[in-house]
Sequence to fold (136 residues):
Amino acid sequence: MFDWHTRDPLRLMRVTTVLQSAALLAQAVTAGLLLASVPAGRTAHGVLAGVVILAVLLNLLAAVLAWRPGGESARFILRSLPMLVFALVQTALGYAHVRELHVPIGVLMFAASVLLLTQVRSAKPARPAVGSGAVS
Fold:
């Protein structure tokens, strides 16, 4: 059976970070629909809030799996954990209709996600891949 972790412990992290960034971008589009008073905008924005939280949780899980003792450093966990906090705060602010904070934090989350994506995509594995033939 193929074990993704032995080849590249950051592979799953790269995939989940792309998904997280895409979900946040889609959330910005639905926010625009909501602010433009498009009837389906509110429903789409609410549904995507759940998708964003799921994507953030998957990204954090991928960071933990990449870190596993002997793997990557914990830096990606430390960079992914605030996204979960922001996502939960965003949900509360959105339901409370506090646009003055909800919109800027959403922009911050998208920027942070894209920054994390660039860091994860350019990161090299911390250790040689198992079975790669590398000599210790």
